[in-house]
Amino acid sequence: MDSGRLLRPLPLVLIFLFAAVAVGDLVQMMIEEPPPPPEIAGTTIPYFEALEPVIDFRSDGRDLAVEIRPIPELARGQWSAAKPQGVWARGATAEFRLELAAAGYRELIVECQPASGNRAVGTLRLNVNGFDLGVVDLVPGWHRYRFVLPGGAVHPGSNRVILDFPDRDPTERPQRALLIRKIGWFLDDDVGVDVLDGGGPVSLDLSAERVSIRRSGVLEIPIVLDDRTDALQMRYRFRFGSGRADVVVEQSEDRGVGQDHTMRATVSADEKSAGRIRVPLHGRRGAFVVRIRADLGLAGSQLLISSLRLVEEGDPTRRPWAANPRPN
Fold first, then answer.
1. Tens of pLDDT, residues 241-250
2. What pairs with residue 288 in β-bridges?
3. Are 39 and 310 in contact (CB under 8 A)?
């Protein structure tokens, strides 16, 4: 028997087997869902720093999902522990320090209540960085007191604030003098005292991809990217049609693998009060930060983000943008 005739079909058999294996692998890849890109929600806590901060001294006035800055540093022995109603200033003076990102504040509003009975104090003097802001007469119950800040009184960095009670004898044993609930710092020199009302400046539910920014400032969210991440996608709406926001993704200080580059996009209510943007990331890897700098303009304006997530190449929601091609 001619063995050559028997071996002639063998290459065809091998080709068929290799083709069958390749088709099987392709089908398996199509059946198996590829791993998703990283999620925005992680183990780190985002923080928000308001441009015009309202410091809430109540123990239950803090959002545990986000760190609200600045945080006052109370002088030891001059303040009580934080309570649901606020924090007590004790003795004849009480001091705290505050790290502020900006200068130019022109007005300070204090929401407080003096102690009653034989502990009552009748006046409050405020001093900021050596600038005397004057004296106000305190009335029983909760009230809001306005102080004018001279030009140059507040500077970026650490600021020293002293509450002084002129009618309190400094030699007496420290007692509760004033219960402070909120203190607000404002660039406008004629804001309404009701500006202290309402909840926190920002609320986050990153697992639901939702963010609400209610005051001008900077929200910073740490993230970790891998090469599956193609873009940051955001759906937004400006409430009351006022404001703008810069959205930046940049590498954090502990640099990861990949290119050191800043990616950004800008949205403005003047151009479009609602819509969607994509910040291209092009598969970068490492520790990054999402920074949303919001300037809301009119009082009461809000930036509502209904979707903030990382998407991958080939995501069905991806819309091609000719202005953002992938690099070679």
1. 789 999 999 9
2. 223, 251
3. yes
Q: With contact defined as beta carbons under 8 Å apart, do 19 and 177 qualify? A: no
Nearest to 52 by CA among 156, 184, 180, 194: 184
Name the helix (H) or strand (E) containing 12. Answer: helix 10-31
Residues 143, 248, single domain; the answer is no
Amino acid in the structure at residue 128 = V
User: Is 47 among the domain residues?
Assistant: no
Domain containing residue 117: CATH number: 2.60.120.260
Q: Which residues of 155-191 are buried (b: 16+ CB within 10 A; e: fewer)?
A: eeeebebbbbbeebeeeeebeebbbbbbbbbbeeeeb
Measure the N-to-C terminal CA separation of the chain; round to a whole number of Å: 59
**Which three-class secondary structure state does DSSP give residue 185?**
strand
- Angle CA 250–289–297, to nearest 5: 90
Whole-angstrom Cα distance, residue 40 to residue 58?
A: 29
**Hey, what are 257's tokens?**
């693998």
Euclidean distance between CA atoms 54 and 200, whole angstroms: 9
Residue 26 lies in a domain: no
96 and 158 Cβ atoms separated by less than 8 Å: no
The secondary structure element, H or E, covering residue 5 is helix 3-7
Q: Which residues of the chain have pLDDT under 50?
A: 6-7, 27, 29-30, 255-260, 316, 318-328
Q: Hey, is 13 helix, strand or coil?
A: helix
Task: Write out the residue range of the structural domain in which residue 206 sits.
Answer: 201-312
* 257 and 172 belong to one structural domain: no
Q: Give 245-271 pLDDT, tens digit per residue.
A: 999 999 876 544 444 468 999 999 999
β-bridge pairing 274-280 and 263-268: unpaired
- The dihedral region occupied by 152, where left means phi > 0, alpha psi between -120 and 50, and beta the remainder, is left
pTM: 0.79
On whether both 93 and 222 belong to a single domain, the answer is: no
Identify the H or E element spanning 20. helix 10-31
Q: Residue 292 in contact with residue 304, Cβ under 8 Å?
A: no
